[in-house]
Amino acid sequence: MTSTTSSRLRCLPGTGSCLLALLWLVSVGLWAQDGSADDDALTLDGDVTLPDNLWPPANIVIPAPSIAVATPEPLPPPPMESLTIMLDWFLSPQHAPLLAAKARELYQAQGLDVTLKPPADPSLPAKLLAAGEVDAALARQPLLHLRDHDDDRLIRIATLMATPLNAVIVTGNSQPDDIDALATLPYGYATREGAELIVPLLVPGSVRQTDGYSAPLNVHYGSERHLQESNIQVMADGFYHSLPAQLATDGINASVIPYTELGLPVHDGLILMVNAKTLKERKDTWQRLTIALENAARWIADDPARAWKTLIEAYPVLDNSVNKAAWPSIVRRMALRPAAVDTRRYRRMETFLQERGITDMRLPTRALAVDPHTL
Q: How many angstroms separate the CA atoms of 71 and 65, rounded?
């Protein structure tokens, strides 16, 4: 019967072959149960009785998969990369792009969790960065040159302020007609470049070698206090957008001498540095960070009044008359393309340092500053 049956199955025509085969198997099963069926009695025209349990009952409900009736659990957000950036000074409007990026969650949009830390002393940021204690740090361009000639291997990845925010601040009722007249006055400084670059430009070596010469005083964060108390009369590296205004509230007149009048080349006023060891291995991080800073700078430039309101709401310590008055000047000096490098500025500063005998050789620009998006 098996061979005959197989022959019949193979010869079934049309698209109903499978159904006929199924019906045949059912009938064979019934025949095998009662033993009364006959091989020859099985025909295509015969009646076939199906078992009661061949099809599921009509009242059975098959539940739908849970994914079809319930909202799936949201996917966990990707992990955020933590970064610590050491500021160059206590919180100030000059840090606006960094602060705005945090207040508007622009870092988070780039997958970054950024912590901003003011230093306990202005000399610490570059030192901590060189030691690998922080991920990035702020400084002025001249300090970067001095540190790299000390083999610290720091490198600029962004510019926050495109022109210097520091200048020589001189107290007195009138600005001296001759800069050389400042040589005999008591000096103060707060940064390394103030001591090693600015003071030597103002005080000739012949004066510094006299017996009556007083070495400049490191005032750290106390420039205003020392000028008020007449411990110094000249601040080599004061913030000219805020210090004269602060002194004016105390009834002290102050004048400003821009660095360009001393022969110091125009340079980036505030830069973001990283350790060169991390430059390529974390290039994606630095690229995302500079994107956040660029978005913040553009947002500030689009509506400075709205940006100022946002900043003082997020950082109430900034809310005072001196900072408010300085805000328009800060916005004008803000770099709108933080990652972009003005290579000419870095070459000129290297030339200046060598010609003044401060350094022995010139470092290539690529060892000092890069656009992380070109790595």
A: 12
